[in-house]
Amino acid sequence: MFDALYRRLTAWRGVALAVLTVLLGLICSRLGVRFDGFIDVHISGTGVGVAPLQAVTDQIVAVVLPSAVLIAVLRAFRVRVGPANALGVVGLVRFPLVVTGFFVPKLMTLVPLTHNPAAPDQRLFAVVAGSLTLLLLVIALLVAGVRGLTGFHGGRLAGAVAAVMLAAEVSSKFAVASAG
Fold first, then answer.
1. Is 46 strand, coil or helix?
2. Which whole number is the average pLDDT over 110-128?
3. Element (H, E) at 53
4. pTM for this one?
């Protein structure tokens, strides 16, 4: 399903999608949403915006660094991928996360969650279910992107995707820690 989308993703479209994802991420940061990792979204319940320098750093860590990691991991698998196509895959993978960043802060102000261990809030279960669904979508987009760039199937595909996710997350955490 997603393979045809990735095959048609030309270099300029990939860069445009990555730029759009970064711009939307910067707008979301004004709503109090942080994207400080490849698949990380942190939403403050206060709605206070993220400092501009931190927001730009977060976007570099969330988009540019994972694109470099994707290129490096695929080169380890003996596949050459250009930076524009890597940016396109990362941009498309991150797009649902950024779109979520627009809606969830507003929903949180409309329906605040309460924490009572004796009587768990059903809205909390809805947030967890939505988060898991979003994570599955992000993983599916990454799998489709890596498959579209490499033609891999089976174990090679699973290994490449796992390596990209792990390396991108770990490197982003180190980058955020050293920058901040």
1. coil
2. 66
3. helix 52-59
4. 0.84
